[in-house]
Write a structure and sequence with these properties.
Blueprint: H1 3-9, H2 50-62, E1 67-71, H3 74-82, E2 90-94, H4 99-109, E3 115-119, H5 124-129, E4 135-141, H6 153-162, E5 166-170, H7 175-178, E6 188-192, E7 206-210, H8 213-226, H9 232-242, H10 245-264, E8 269-273, H11 283-289, E9 296-301, H12 306-313, E10 320-321, E11 331-333, H13 345-350, E12 357-361, H14 367-378
Parallel strand pairs: 2-3, 2-4, 4-5, 5-6, 10-11
Antiparallel strand pairs: 1-7, 6-7, 8-9, 9-12, 11-12
The structure holds pyridoxal-5'-phosphate.
Pyridoxal-5'-phosphate is lined by residues 73-75, 98, 100-101, 141, 145, 170, 172-173, 192, 194-195, 204, 206.
InterPro entries: Cys/Met-Metab_PyrdxlP-dep_enz, Cys_met_metab_PP, PyrdxlP-dep_Trfase, PyrdxlP-dep_Trfase_major, PyrdxlP-dep_Trfase_small
Organism: Sphingobacterium deserti
Family: Belongs to the trans-sulfuration enzymes family.
């Protein structure tokens, strides 16, 4: 089946008792057993719930994977992967990660004796040089947040295989519509389903998708033992969101391309990050592994200190100043104080998260209105 058909149908069947076409919200914590241990595959909703199962199967299909796991947040999904590690293990990861990933790595897992090595994942040599006999996990985000650096998923997969290291790709920014890391050698795809997958900014949820059954069983153990699993109402909403993923992503990409072109030559813009530009350092990798360039753009404002940046960020009428991304509505974010506030100033400035950087999540409103709003704030 092709992507659009899977987005609408995968994992879903008309309800056997009523014929309901939409997967019901199975708002139940427990399931009747006809005698002890005899049940229909569902015992207790921390571990299994039919609405969540439909979502997990749909997510797995969209990422070309065999197994899906849904979590109550992207961070809960990340936490579940990190539980596979032991004290003394090392993790190689990117130097401009999502702030919450940086925080769980350094503030939660370092205290249990796990070491995180931060490198530029667009630099394959730096990555291979960082491998030691203790390296157990490579964690890659691509495109990165917020400077949209590209990591070559397939090339990193070869390094991971060579040294027998578990390889995870955070695919939140691209979504499965634009790239499928499992096809390129990743062992696990991680998502903040809060973003493009759900797409309507009304649910916080995470996901993992993978092919290996033994690894799935290990992850399922922590998923159930720790319990960061979402309720059926949120699973229903995310499942509904997925039905339009392909339509939304196409519109996000088209609008972002128009806006990137508008901003590129604008006098108030000192620098723009968007992988669709041929002079973007990761453009060739993006062309190779992505089907389009996504809905995220970051800009550095010219001659703007923190105060001026705040003033500009607060004046939009159609764009909303808010954290998060990937919803139908356009958002502006100030990474240095919002999404990346938990990263020390020196560490974030080293990777370009300066005080006058703004990140734009381009929504699917009429692009003329979005450009008019940018003009209203920045001038023509
Ligand atoms: C938002 C985000 C996360 C964390 O997900 P939550 O759903 O907010 O817990 C992880 N990675 C990336 C790239 C994100 O944008």
């Amino acid at each position: 089946m092709k992507f659009a058909t899977k987005a609408i149908h995968a994992g879903q069947h008309a309800d056997p008792t009523t014929g309901a076409v939409m997967t019901p919200i199975y708002q139940t914590s427990t399931y009747r057993q006809s005698s002890p241990g005899e049940h229909k595959g569902y015992e207790y909703s921390r571990g299994t719930n039919p609405t969540r199962k439909a979502l997990e199967d749909c997510l797995a299909a969209l990422e070309n994977g065999k197994f899906g796991l849904a979590f109550s947040s992207g961070m809960a999904a990340t936490d579940t992967v990190l539980r596979l590690l032991q004290p003394g293990d090392e993790v190689i990861t990117g130097d401009d990660l999502y702030g919450g990933s940086y925080r769980i790595f350094t503030k939660v897992y370092e205290q249990y004796g796990i070491k995180f090595v931060f490198i530029d994942t667009s630099d394959l040599k730096a990555l291979e040089d960082a491998v030691t006999d203790k390296t157990k996990l490579i964690w890659v985000e691509t495109p990165t947040n917020p400077t949209l650096k590209l990591a070559d998923i397939e090339a990193i997969g070869k390094i991971a295989k060579k040294y027998d290291i578990l390889y995870v790709v955070d695919n939140t920014f691209a979504s499965p519509y634009l790239q499928n890391p499992l096809d390129l050698g990743a062992d696990i795809v991680m998502h903040s389903a809060t973003k493009y997958l759900n797409g309507h900014s009304d649910v916080v949820m995470g996901a993992l998708v993978l092919n290996d059954e033994a690894l799935y069983k290990q992850l399922w153990f922590f998923y159930n033992a720790v319990g960061g699993t979402p309720g059926p109402q949120d699973a229903f909403l995310a499942l509904r969101g997925l039905k339009t993923l392909h339509v939304r992503m196409k519109a996000h990409c088209e609008n972002a391309a128009r806006i990137a072109e508008f901003l590129k030559t604008h006098p108030k813009i000192e620098k723009i990050y968007w992988p669709g530009f041929t002079d973007h350092p990761g453009h060739d990798v993006a062309e190779k592994q992505m089907r389009d360039f996504g809905g995220m753009i970051s800009v550095v404002l010219s001659d703007a200190d923190l105060q001026e940046t705040f003033r500009i960020a607060s004046r939009f009428k159609v764009f909303t100043l808010a954290e998060s991304l990937g919803g139908v509505e356009s958002l502006i974010n100030h990474p240095a104080t919002m999404t990346h506030g938990s990263i020390p100033k020196e560490a974030r400035e080293r990777v370009g998260v300066v005080d006058n950087l703004l990140r734009i999540s381009v929504g699917i409103e009429d692009v003329d209105d979005l450009i008019a709003d940018l003009k209203q704030v920045l001038g023509d």
